Automatic annotation (TrEMBL):
<protein>
    <submittedName>
        <fullName>Hydroxymethylglutaryl-CoA lyase</fullName>
    </submittedName>
</protein>
<dbReference type="GO" id="GO:0046951">
    <property type="term" value="P:ketone body biosynthetic process"/>
</dbReference>
<dbReference type="Pfam" id="PF00682">
    <property type="entry name" value="HMGL-like"/>
</dbReference>
<dbReference type="InterPro" id="IPR013785">
    <property type="entry name" value="Aldolase_TIM"/>
</dbReference>
<feature type="domain" description="Pyruvate carboxyltransferase">
    <location>
        <begin position="1"/>
        <end position="271"/>
    </location>
</feature>
<dbReference type="GO" id="GO:0046872">
    <property type="term" value="F:metal ion binding"/>
</dbReference>
<dbReference type="InterPro" id="IPR043594">
    <property type="entry name" value="HMGL"/>
</dbReference>
<keyword id="KW-0479">Metal-binding</keyword>
<keyword id="KW-0456">Lyase</keyword>
<comment type="similarity">
    <text>Belongs to the HMG-CoA lyase family.</text>
</comment>
<dbReference type="GO" id="GO:0004419">
    <property type="term" value="F:hydroxymethylglutaryl-CoA lyase activity"/>
</dbReference>
<dbReference type="GO" id="GO:0006552">
    <property type="term" value="P:L-leucine catabolic process"/>
</dbReference>
<dbReference type="InterPro" id="IPR000891">
    <property type="entry name" value="PYR_CT"/>
</dbReference>
């Protein structure tokens, strides 16, 4: 079954103007009515690094989870953030950005890869103790612009280390929009065959005209977990000077529906969310 993860946190985090807490909550409450598997709603990180997300706890207090099956995911960058997130019963998943690029790991979390792997182990232990599940994002999972080493074999080595920690959800992130359909297909196929018990996801940053062949390649290789953001807003502010946007959820839904997938979404509520997105991201 296809799982759609809507990522308003990723869409908002790089915006220079602060979005009022009540507006964020209203938007998230509308998204919760649509029927997405998971909402990546906020992050517990340094407000100096990502000032847009400094009100995540306050937003969470305003969310109405009654009548929705959508789960909540919060991004953390260190053990302290994970401890803060674990205080909230409403949060199901913690997400950690682990990079296969040493340069980007430093830029994104101010850690070396080795230190980041240690943080992953500590956060995984915390999740298991507190009834949460850790989603690990392998950023720069399809290459990087910094000249750091990259190969599918390198990525597989990271996957093995995460499997050894009993992490069960790993999402490959194309942070700078450089992945080709061929690389997406081969990376998923290789890892899905090697680790059949792992749920592998895809977090793309891409230009709209390149989306269909990339999604088709992932589907053909067996991927069933996809991240998106309405209207394709967002991108990683830590990646490089120019942002490459997220997958536009409405385009992703259209692609999947044409292929006959029943996504279990309330499309009338989705239409309302699209209207609200135009206000939130004006």
């Amino acid at each position: 079954m296809i799982k759609l993860i809507e990522c308003p946190r990723d869409a908002m985090q790089g915006l220079p103007d602060f979005i009022d807490t009540s507006i964020k909550a209203a938007y998230l409450n509308q998204l919760l009515q649509v029927g997405f598997d998971t909402i990546d709603f906020g992050s517990f990180v340094s407000p100096k690094a990502i000032p847009q997300m400094r009100d995540t706890a306050e937003v969470l207090d305003q969310l109405d989870l009654f009548g929705t099956h959508s789960k909540l995911l919060a991004i953390v960058a260190n053990l302290r953030g994970a401890e803060d997130a674990c205080q909230f019963e409403q949060i199901d998943y913690l997400g950690f950005p682990l990079s296969v690029s040493e340069t980007f790991q430093q830029r994104n979390t101010n850690k070396s890869i080795q230190d980041a792997l240690q943080a992953v182990e500590e956060i995984q232990n915390l999740c298991q103790t507190n009834g949460k599940q850790l989603v690990t994002y392998l950023s720069m999972g399809f290459g990087n612009p910094y000249g750091d080493p990259y190969s599918p074999e390198l990525v597989a080595g990271f996957v093995q280390q995460l499997v050894d920690l009993d992490i069960q959800i790993i999402s490959f992130a194309d942070t700078t929009g450089s992945a080709s359909p061929e690389l997406i297909g081969s990376l998923y196929q290789i890892n899905a065959q090697a680790f059949p018990a792992i749920e592998f996801g895809l977090h793309l940053h891409t230009q709209a005209q390149d989306l269909a062949p990339k999604i088709n390649a992932a589907l053909a290789a067996g991927c069933q977990r996809f991240d998106g953001a309405l209207k394709g807003f967002g991108g990683c502010p830590m990646a490089k000077d120019e942002l490459v946007g997220n997958v536009a959820t409405e385009q992703l839904i259209a692609l999947l529906q044409v292929k006959g997938y029943d996504l279990g979404l309330k499309m009338d509520e989705f239409a309302e969310a699209l209207k609200l997105a135009q206000v939130v991201f004006k």
